[in-house]
Design brief:
Layout: E1 2-7, H1 13-25, E2 29-34, H2 45-50, E3 56-61, H3 62-68, E4 79-82, H4 84-93, E5 96-99
Parallel strand pairs: 1-2, 1-5, 2-3, 3-4
């Protein structure tokens, strides 16, 4: 199963990390898309590190990050800077979606 996690707040980091680890442990893959206040998590090393795990893809909304000034100077190459297209693609491709 492919799980999608739509992150639009910066208050649920522990949930993102825990749900992602639990899904991966069960053999699932996880797509994460951050926008709005969720892009504030990009500066948290624990959030960014999730993108390097096998089975995880991560993208964020560049417009949100630029609007909020939350786009770090450098990010792991495994995090895609994108738009609502990446969000729409995630919603289309995942089997289940969680909004945090």
């Amino acid at each position: 199963m492919k799980l999608g996690i739509f992150v639009n707040t910066n208050t649920q980091l522990a949930a993102v990390l825990g749900i992602t680890d639990a899904a991966l442990a069960q053999g699932h893959t996880v797509d994460i898309f951050a926008m709005d206040d969720g892009t504030r998590l990009l500066s948290d090393p624990a959030f960014a590190a999730v993108s390097g795990k096998t089975g995880v893809t991560m993208a964020f909304c560049d417009h949100s990050a630029q609007h909020l000034g939350t786009k770090p100077a450098s990010l792991p190459g495994s995090i895609s800077c994108g738009s609502q297209f990446e969000n729409a693609t995630m919603n289309h491709e995942v089997d289940r979606l969680i909004v945090l």
